[in-house]
């Protein structure tokens, strides 16, 4: 089975293609997005603006971490450039590969970031995913951004973040 030489997405991932170097279309698009220093600076300024609201204290961040390139770059930037104190969590939706789990652990260890998993009953998730696949649950505008199943997962990890944040406060 072919996997991306950069991000480890497999050939079974929907809509994936590979170039001659074995790099997937998602990584290629990511390179294009961050190709210019202007775009990198814009992203960094956006983060800096959010962090400025913390004043002189070290920003404390609870971050949803998928282990993908976007969240890895964001976590690295927050920790290395802005000195944020980060707690990262991953929502285990039952689709996380062992290799992705290992990559998440490796990155968090390297950056010295506390990490935990949020899990729900797989039976409950399966029922929700099945219901979502068989029914129109969300407006069409929502479906332009992500599938019903992805939107269900997003709701779970957002609520998990809010609950964890309230418990820690």
Strand-helix topology:
Layout lengths: L24 H9 L3 H16 L7 E5 L4 H13 L3 E8 L5 H14 L2 E6 L2 H13 L5 H4 L4 H21 L1
Give a short synopsis of this structure.
This protein is mainly α.
What does this structure look like?
This protein has a domain at 56-168: Rossmann fold (3-Layer(aba) Sandwich). The protein has a three-stranded parallel sheet with strand order 1-2-3, with helices on both faces. The protein is mainly alpha-helical. The model has no long low-confidence stretch (mean pLDDT 82). It is globular and about 50 Å long. It has seven helices and three strands; from the N terminus they run H-H-E-H-E-H-E-H-H-H. The termini are far apart.
Key features of this structure:
169 residues; mainly alpha; Rossmann fold; 3-stranded parallel β-sheet; 7 helices; 3 strands; 11% strand; globular
């Amino acid at each position: 089975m072919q996997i991306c030489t950069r991000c480890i997405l497999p050939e079974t991932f929907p809509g994936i293609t590979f170039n001659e170097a074995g790099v997937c279309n998602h990584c290629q698009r990511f390179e294009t997005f961050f190709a210019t220093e202007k775009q990198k600076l814009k992203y960094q300024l956006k983060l800096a603006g959010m962090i400025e609201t913390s004043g002189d204290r070290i920003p404390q961040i609870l971050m949803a971490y998928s282990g993908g390139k976007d969240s890895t770059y964001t976590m690295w930037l927050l920790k290395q450039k802005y000195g944020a104190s980060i707690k990262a969590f991953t929502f285990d939706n039952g689709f996380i590969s062992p290799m992705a789990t290992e990559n998440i652990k490796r990155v968090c260890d390297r950056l010295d970031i506390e990490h935990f998993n949020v899990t729900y009953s797989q039976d409950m998730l399966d029922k929700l995913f099945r219901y979502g696949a068989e029914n129109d649950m969300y407006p069409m505008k929502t479906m332009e951004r992500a599938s019903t199943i992805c939107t269900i997962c997003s709701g779970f990890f957002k609520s998990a973040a809010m609950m964890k944040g309230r418990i820690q406060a």
